[in-house]
Specification:
12 strands, transmembrane helix, 53% helix, four-stranded antiparallel beta sheet, transmembrane, membrane, globular
Length: 560
């Protein structure tokens, strides 16, 4: 209840005319949002949604948007009631809050939510009010197509143009509607491609990877991404003029763009030079991109590097991880002289034995240690298959010996695994039973009243009744403290006093509940654990279960 009381206090403060109080309340809300294992009663979350529809005091700065931050907070809780309440209150939300609500409703993948979103998103797009959440439609091509069908003319307007091309790409790539609106789209596509191409050609003659990340930065990367979008669409919108542009793009200096064009040429059986294939496979930016694109099309035999593929890909993975994470000022970390020093095999957080590559790289003339991996050691997996934990802590290479660096890496992994194994992600105990509350709320006042009529010394009898009720409640509380449902590390644990039963989360096939119990089944379809439904707030329990199994390939069914 402590969290719920503080949240209700935050709701009151957000309506204050004092900007300082609103700022403090939003900061408190942010602190709660940062707690990964936070549990909040559904009634309070629904109150947060209703509060977000209120008219707040006039804003004093960009941060002063309680409607958005309240919706952003509740959207971390995946519950059916949240979905229903967001749809019910959608029209009264601030525009940014609507965008956040749309992202949440999309993630539910609920058909009712999709029907709702189709209507609301079309309305907002037609009134030029919706931008950010349009990108989220890429994962939902059917909904994207329905919305594009009703708003297609927006592709001619600058704010929507490239978002629409991205959605069209997802519709084609999904196989839902290859060549979507081809007659309308092809001439527009070629015209817009030429506009972006003119911008790209201003850079082409001077292209170097270092220029991209150390000098040109976002100004160039935006043009690259747009040109790539158009080139990849040419797979589905093909014509003699498109072929001419693809063959021209094979000779651009940007290895990423060359790779995209090369893959389409291979898919369309267009001629290409073997040297282009070799160059893109060996370039630090494009080596991994080419590998996976060939694999997707069952053309991996064309990859010109057939031996030591993993260490080769590890270098480009490390490079792209580093440059893909600019700092707060937009500056890229640019590693040079990347070398594979050694390798070691260890378990990752998914308990798989994988391979990590020990990397030496240079920045500002200082040699540092980095790690790329972990790469699959399973023979049936592609050589580039990875559960990615690529990183660097910028430890100087010369600070330890190679063996000491490797041992420090293993020690760090061991500490992380121990922390995860012992971390309590969820804990719940039954509250006072209905019988106990009945005794306190009904029987005690009833007994007190009759004590005055039936006994000569009512005070004594009243004290006896109160004492018995308190004793009964205390016994219940003490007993309930020994009854617990926990998610500790990768284990679901049920405690009944000294008795404890558990099951590994990866061994769970199904989680169901009825009016009285929660039922846990293993992979052999056997009922393994069973505990009273009253021991947990089921919405919070299933939400945490979803979080803890999200990284599993074979996820259990968890009843909502």
């Amino acid at each position: 209840m402590k969290v719920e009381l503080k949240l209700r206090n935050i709701l009151r403060q957000l309506k204050s005319a004092d900007p300082k109080k609103r700022y403090e309340a939003l900061d408190d809300l942010y602190q709660y949002k940062q707690q990964d294992d936070l549990q909040v009663q559904i009634e309070v979350l629904l109150d947060c949604i209703k509060a977000a529809t209120a008219k707040f005091p006039k804003r004093v700065d960009h941060w002063d948007n309680p409607s958005y931050y309240l919706i952003d907070f509740v959207c971390d809780f995946r519950m059916p009631q949240i979905m229903e309440s967001l749809m019910e209150n959608f029209e009264r939300l601030d525009l940014l809050a609507k965008e956040r609500a749309i992202e949440f409703l999309l993630s539910t993948e609920d058909q009712k939510a999709f029907y709702f979103l189709e209507e609301k998103m079309v309305q907002l797009i037609q009134s030029d009010k919706l931008f950010r959440s349009i990108r989220e439609l890429r994962a939902y091509p059917v909904l994207a197509r329905n919305i594009l069908n009703k708003t297609f003319d927006k592709i001619h307007t600058e704010p929507y143009k490239f978002m629409y091309y991205s959605l069209i790409s997802s519709i084609n790539e999904s196989g839902l509607d290859p060549g979507y609106k081809e007659e309308k789209l092809l001439p527009i596509l070629l015209e817009d491609y030429q506009t972006v191409l003119e911008d790209y050609l201003k850079y082409d003659s001077d292209y170097s990877t270092k220029f991209v990340y150390m000098a040109w930065k976002d100004s160039y990367l935006l043009i690259r991404n747009r040109l790539r979008l158009f080139i990849n669409l040419m797979m589905y919108y093909f014509s003699p003029e498109v072929e001419k542009e693809l063959r021209r793009a094979l000779h651009f200096k940007d290895p990423i763009i060359r790779t995209d064009a090369l893959i389409i040429c291979l898919s369309k059986s267009l001629p290409y030079e073997q040297g282009i294939l070799v160059e893109t496979a060996n370039h630090i930016e494009s080596a991994e991109l080419l590998y996976w694109k060939l694999l997707e099309r069952n053309l991996q035999h064309l990859y010109p590097i057939q031996e030591e593929v993993q260490p080769h890909l590890a270098k480009t993975r490390f490079f792209n991880t580093m440059v893909g994470d600019p700092d707060e000022e937009g500056n890229f970390q640019y590693p040079e002289e990347i070398q594979i020093v050694d390798q070691l095999d260890a378990e990752n957080v998914q308990r798989r034995l994988v391979r990590y590559y020990f990397i030496r790289f240079q920045m500002n003339n200082i040699d540092y240690v980095g790690w790329a991996g972990g790469y699959s050691l399973e023979s049936e997996d592609p050589q580039g298959a990875i559960w990615d934990e690529t990183y660097t802590d910028f430890v100087e290479f010369d600070s330890l010996s190679i063996e000491e660096h490797k041992q420090a890496f293993l020690d760090g992994k061991k500490k992380l695994m121990n922390v995860l194994d012992q971390h309590v992600f969820y804990e719940s105990s039954p509250k006072l039973s209905t019988g106990a509350w009945f005794a306190i709320a009904v029987i005690v006042p009833f007994a007190i009243r009759f004590s005055y009529y039936l006994f000569n010394f009512p005070i004594l009898n009243i004290l006896i009744v109160i004492g018995l009720a308190c004793s009964f409640s205390f016994i219940q509380v003490q007993r309930n403290k020994k009854r617990k449902v926990l998610i500790i590390g990768d284990q679901l644990v049920v405690k009944r006093g000294a008795k404890q039963n558990s099951i590994g989360l990866r061994n769970i096939e199904k989680v169901e509940y009825n009016q009285k119990h929660v039922l846990i089944y293993n992979k052999h379809h056997e009922l393994t654990l069973k505990f009273p439904l009253s021991w947990v707030q089921y919405d919070l329990f299933q939400q945490q279960m979803h979080k803890n199994v999200a990284h599993y390939e074979d996820k259990p069914f968890i009843q909502s």
